[in-house]
User: Fold these one by one.
Assistant:
Number 1:
Amino acid sequence: MATGWKKTLGNIRSAVGNAMGGLRGGSNLASWVVAGTLAYFLWIKPSQELKREQEERAAITAANDRYRYVEKIKPIPVLQV
């Protein structure tokens, strides 16, 4: 019975290895690192920078708006007993 689950585990490992491109060991890890690095610099980082720039532009526009609402009434302080 012990050989049955070992064979099943081996088949699962083989299927996972084939699904990840069939590479094994260090070359597999290196290829995933390269792919992840490329994805970060080509997709993730530019989208984060674009979002940050849009937020900065929106903040500058809101700060320079002459017609924005400004509270002119001082808040009533709570008197401490």
Note: Helices lie at 2-19, 26-63.
Number 2:
Amino acid sequence: MRHTVRSRRVLTAALIAGLAAALGACTPTVKVEAPDKPIEINLNIRIEQEVRVKVERDLEKAIADDPALFGLPSDSGAKGGRKP
């Protein structure tokens, strides 16, 4: 039985040494280099908020001018309507 305990210790020591060697060989390498080509930033931005506000204002004006055209009652005191 003494022989198996000793062989387990040797095997454990060998595994630990092998694991340490494997982890030591896998060290990460980071390289920082300047790019060959200039950096290009593409700024294709859609600006639609201003256009949307203008369309909403025009639509409100059109509804206020002729509510019957949109199937609304022509009451000038209606909610959200403008007074002429």
Note: The radius of gyration is 39 Å.
Number 3:
Amino acid sequence: MLTQFSKLSLDTDRRYATDSELKFIEDYLESVDMRIQTYEKIMASEEAILQEVDAKMHELNENNCLYKMDEHGKEICRRDRKQAIKYSSAAMLVNDLDRLRDGLLIWLQTIVRAVGYERFVRNHYPIIQEVIKQYLTAEEAKFILPALQLDCTILGA
């Protein structure tokens, strides 16, 4: 949304916007109540979501078959997971996946590649999506899943 407003401002310099250029605002306003509801549900369920994801990742990594990580590394992953859910939820709320991609994910991708955790991410983010869907209705999930899929695509590449 913020990226679209910025683009609109540049595109319409010295003239009025057309109806088609304003369409994204109408679309957003039609979905804002559901976006807020989804955001609030994720916020209220954050700890339960994180615990369930952590348990599933632990189960998936039985005998360190996926990754080896000491407790400090696991704590960093838990922190990053929490931040990813928050940033993805914020991007969903304001409908601005471009800003999520350009402002956070490209930077995080560098870190993920540097430590060699692309495989971990490719397994991790689908689990986050699976767990979050359990806390949301299908209608709510359709708003957050694109952000989480973008996370997985960029960080797992």
Note: The domain at 2-155 is CATH 1.10.490.20 (Globin-like).
